[in-house]
Amino acid sequence: MTMFNIRGMHRILASSIGVTCAAALAVPLAPATAIASASPTRTPHTTQTQSQTPTTETTPEGHTESLPLKPLTSTRATATPTAPEQGLRAQDVRRFSLVGVIWDDPRTELHGTVQVRTRSTETGTWSDWQDVATHNADHAPDPDASERVSGRVHGATAPLWVGESDGVEVRVRAEQPETTDTPTLPTGLRLELVDPGEEPARTAPAARTAPVRRADTPQDAAPASVATTLSAETAEASAVNTELAPLGALEIPALSDEETRRELLTLGQAELLADLTEEQQAKPYIGPRPGIVTRRGWGANESWRERKFVYTSKVKAAFVHHTASGNGYTCSQAPSVIRGIYRYHVMSMGWRDIGYNFVVDKCGTIYEGRAGGVAKPVLGAHTLGFNSNSMGIALLGSYGSKKPSKASVNAVAGLTAWKLGLFGANPRGKTYLKSGGGNLYAKGRKVRLNVISGHRDGFATECPGLQMYRKLGTTRKAAAELQGR
């Protein structure tokens, strides 16, 4: 493996080409937004009726068009809010790339099928009918979490990436229950058409405040303390994005060398210096830190999410997921897909941020998910009942029948070897987590789980897809070897 000398990196960054490359993908650091308890500023989320004339206008920050579904039959008996067949006829809409269906009550499940077909802006042709995964309630905040009981949360299908489109048709059909009851659908069904927007222009951040660290029960705990505000100079230096090679391939000298410390700070690596110091003081079995594209690197608009960060006490386990958003994306489109999912989670589903802690695309690129710092125990919304003391890693795509790429499986192994190692967890081991409530384990029950588990181990779901689930044994073995076990 090629090793990069720190001084060599300094010379590269001194050139305009080096700075340009460095700004493309970021070494992990916490987002440069200050903590606040105020609600996030919402960007456009428009409601359109079928009689309105849509516009093809797109905006750099993206938008969400929300269309209420209607009964597809005309009889008075079926024209109810819970009609068993609802949808929209083919129509022109604003440009979008990702689609999902939401409803009023997040506690209500949609038992049935959701299908969409879309018209490509590139070819002008309509797609075949595509299935949208309906079981998405298991990717959620824990039942008692403040994020769950905020009053803004909706039930939702998984999002589906369809590529840039300007026409849509949808049909939702309830399945016949085992009883003699009439099949029904949840109330308030709406079609969400998401334009993920463009990657925002990069600007140097102002001085920022480190996040408030919270207790093991994040939603109820009061702030313990606020760390020192970084100076404007240090904050700007820390924002220099240095991804010339995966961080695991960089040769990091001993941090007792004061000259090395100054070198890292000059390179804009204040966050890296702090994290590396923490890692060296942690448990001995830590895999090499992989390259991670930060939120800034994939173009996260930080005004969409809530500005506060919430932490759990540690990371004892990793749950592996798939986004169930389809495999029809190119790796160059992955940042757009992630921005679409981010917007869907926040604007449509009502969460504080994207639910996953990390996302991995089919080329093996790792992306920072929920904000708060990649080396920190950020509380996610990925495994209903087991979000505390765990992290969620989602493969971008659907892996029920399709096998995940070797690169993506290797990326999950590398990420878990490093992140679990920071907290002394053995990827081949077992651990106990307390259930927050779900359809497999009652609230309060202590459950013995693999340190690297599939989503279905904590909740009755198909996630992370059968094909990815079969790879977890290989993942555990590879991660343990990377830790030197």
TrEMBL record:
<feature type="compositionally biased region" description="Low complexity">
    <location>
        <begin position="36"/>
        <end position="61"/>
    </location>
</feature>
<dbReference type="InterPro" id="IPR036505">
    <property type="entry name" value="Amidase/PGRP_sf"/>
</dbReference>
<feature type="domain" description="N-acetylmuramoyl-L-alanine amidase">
    <location>
        <begin position="304"/>
        <end position="465"/>
    </location>
</feature>
<feature type="region of interest" description="Disordered">
    <location>
        <begin position="36"/>
        <end position="91"/>
    </location>
</feature>
<feature type="compositionally biased region" description="Low complexity">
    <location>
        <begin position="71"/>
        <end position="84"/>
    </location>
</feature>
<comment type="similarity">
    <text>Belongs to the N-acetylmuramoyl-L-alanine amidase 2 family.</text>
</comment>
<dbReference type="Pfam" id="PF01510">
    <property type="entry name" value="Amidase_2"/>
</dbReference>
<feature type="region of interest" description="Disordered">
    <location>
        <begin position="195"/>
        <end position="223"/>
    </location>
</feature>
<protein>
    <submittedName>
        <fullName>Peptidoglycan recognition protein</fullName>
    </submittedName>
</protein>
<feature type="compositionally biased region" description="Low complexity">
    <location>
        <begin position="202"/>
        <end position="212"/>
    </location>
</feature>
<dbReference type="InterPro" id="IPR015510">
    <property type="entry name" value="PGRP"/>
</dbReference>
<feature type="domain" description="Peptidoglycan recognition protein family">
    <location>
        <begin position="290"/>
        <end position="438"/>
    </location>
</feature>
<dbReference type="InterPro" id="IPR006619">
    <property type="entry name" value="PGRP_domain_met/bac"/>
</dbReference>
<keyword id="KW-0732">Signal</keyword>
<dbReference type="InterPro" id="IPR002502">
    <property type="entry name" value="Amidase_domain"/>
</dbReference>
<feature type="signal peptide">
    <location>
        <begin position="1"/>
        <end position="36"/>
    </location>
</feature>
